[in-house]
Amino acid sequence: DTGVSQDPRHKITKRGQNVTFRCDPISEHNRLYWYRQTLGQGPEFLTYFQNEAQLEKSRLLSDRFSAERPKGSFSTLEIQRTEQGDSAMYLCASSPGTQYNEQFFGPGTRLTVL
Amino acid sequence: AQSVTQLDSHVSVSEGTPVLLRCNYSSSYSPSLFWYVQHPNKGLQLLLKYTSAATLVKGINGFEAEFKKSETSFHLTKPSAHMSDAAEYFCVVTLGPSGNTPLVFGKGTRLSVIA
User: Fold this and answer.
1) How do strand B109-114 and strand B10-14 relate by DSSP bridges?
2) Fewest 10 Å CB contacts: which of A50, A56, B39, B115?
3) Of B44, B98, B99, the CB nearest to A105
């Protein structure tokens, strides 16, 4: 399978704990995006990368959130001191980086904060 | 500011009848617009995209959408619904003028297909 993969698929944690999610984009896609989707809503943009450079962060991304893409391949999204409001589906997408190319989405990581 | 408004949160049709999912957009630039579909427990999949070429865009599975600048609309249609079309549909606009920027999603329209 050469699609976007995310790990883990599900994560249950207690409030106050740190969690880290991983995204592996499609090979040679140089743009990588993170979105968050809560129940009954459309996905909301969090941040994105061009290779290893983080180009933009949404205002939704509080100081407790950090994302990296150290070698321009896979990316990690870390949430520190999780809160119940962080419970959501975290989606990763990648694209080739040329204009008008679609973003290919992974299956998502569902986070539940107890 | 870039935004999309999906006018119906839920649409229900009978199998074999036409589908119409409505979307209006707001954009500071000439927009790039998309429709994505999300089946239960599956990832988002692109149905079709408009990128300033033809105003009538054909997508996968018999769906099409028409870009109407005067009405700021990008409605999704299909002549005949199939049971497998039941899913959540999102109208999407790009955050920036390039088609290769983050996406802004509508709240979604849940399509139900009745046998």
Assistant:
1) parallel
2) B115
3) B44
A48/B102 Cβ within 8 A: yes
A1 in contact with B at a CB cutoff of 8 Å? no
Peptide bond into B97 cis (omega under 30): no
Residue type, position B114, single letter: I
What is the mean pLDDT of the segment spanning B63-72? 95
Q: What is the pLDDT along chain A (114 residues), one digit of tens a residue?
A: 579 999 999 999 999 999 999 999 999 899 999 999 999 899 999 999 999 999 999 988 899 999 999 988 999 999 999 999 999 999 999 998 776 678 999 999 999 999
The strand pairing partners of A56, in sequence order, are A48
Q: Give the angle subtended at the CA of B68 by the CAs of B95 and A99, to the nearest 5°.
A: 35
**Residue B79, phi-psi category: left (phi > 0), alpha (psi -120 to 50), beta (remainder):** alpha
Mutation target to probe the A interface, by most A beta carbons within 10 A, among B95, B100, B104, B109 is: B100
Mutate: best of B103, B104, B105, partner A, most A CBs <10 A: B103
Q: Is B98 on the interface with A (CB under 8 A)?
A: yes
Q: Minimal Cα distance from B52: which residue of A? A: A100
